[in-house]
Design goal:
With 237 residues, the protein is mainly alpha-helical. It has helices at residues 5-11, 17-32, 41-48, 54-61, 75-126, 135-145, 152-162, 168-180, 185-198, 203-213, 221-236, and strands at 37-38, 66-68, 71-73. Helix 7 (152-162) crosses helix 8 (168-180).
Length: 237
């Protein structure tokens, strides 16, 4: 409850100390009770803490109150209380709207940061040229892949293709199709490198065309070794 000191002193110049104290106690009790008090004088006397002196005190301060339907009120206090309640509700609603706005702003900021981070990651991946592994590293990778749930060609290939706008499911499907068609992992990796250098906009179409331009069957080292061995046997005979 706000106490307008100048107004209060002006309104109580005709009251003695006991009457001023009783009046102030009743105003504070009225504010706490929501703006009205019961007109029962027994209750009022206890709130004002006057005891036997109550009749005299009430006679001096009663003109500051109005009785409506068995309830006492004070016109100035009722107006101040109404304004305080209205202001409190406005502040509550403004705080709720401000909280929602801040939450939305934070969410938009997190989303923007996530998109920027993803775009940067894709750009960095696109700028990376793939190099087919050497024979030694190929063998090492093959040994490591035996303990993995899927060959490394899929993890590398999926990252390469999804970084260029291809859906992950489609990326896995086309890589599997290329391997099933007889293209080796080094051959596919080399094709990724060529595709990256060419800056292909449609990587799957470009890679399919690249594989179509090459012989369908890759070099079979076992066949070559068998031919060499047969030639040596013919020479020894």
């Amino acid at each position: 409850m706000k106490l307008w000191i100048s107004d209060f002193l002006s309104d109580t110049l005709d009251l003695d100390a006991r009457e001023v104290g009783a009046y102030l106690l009743l105003l504070m009790a009225m504010w706490k009770a929501g703006g009205t008090l019961s007109s029962d004088e027994g209750k009022l006397r206890r709130m004002a803490r006057c005891g036997r002196d109550w009749p005299r005190v009430w006679a001096g301060i009663s003109h500051h109150f109005e009785e409506v339907d068995g309830r006492l009120t004070n016109r100035r206090l009722a107006r101040e209380l109404s304004e305080a309640v209205t202001k409190q509700e406005v502040n509550r609603q403004s705080g709720a709207l401000g909280g929602k706005a801040k939450a939305l702003k934070d969410k938009e900021a997190r989303l923007a940061n996530a998109i920027a981070s993803q775009s940067q990651s894709q750009k960095e991946y696109s700028d990376t040229s793939y190099r087919p592994p050497s024979a030694a590293s190929e063998g090492s990778d093959r040994d490591q892949d035996q303990g993995r749930s899927e060959p490394s060609i899929f993890s590398v290939g999926v990252a390469f293709l999804t970084g260029r706008g291809v859906d992950e499911r489609r990326a896995r499907s086309v890589i599997g199709a290329w391997r099933k068609a007889g293209h080796s992992d080094p051959e596919i990796l080399a094709a990724f490198d060529e595709c990256s250098r060419a800056g292909a906009v449609e990587p799957v179409a470009w890679l399919n065309a690249s594989f179509d331009r090459k012989p369908e069957s890759s070099v079979d080292l076992k066949t070559i070794f068998a031919q060499i061995r047969a030639e040596r046997e013919d020479e020894s005979e």
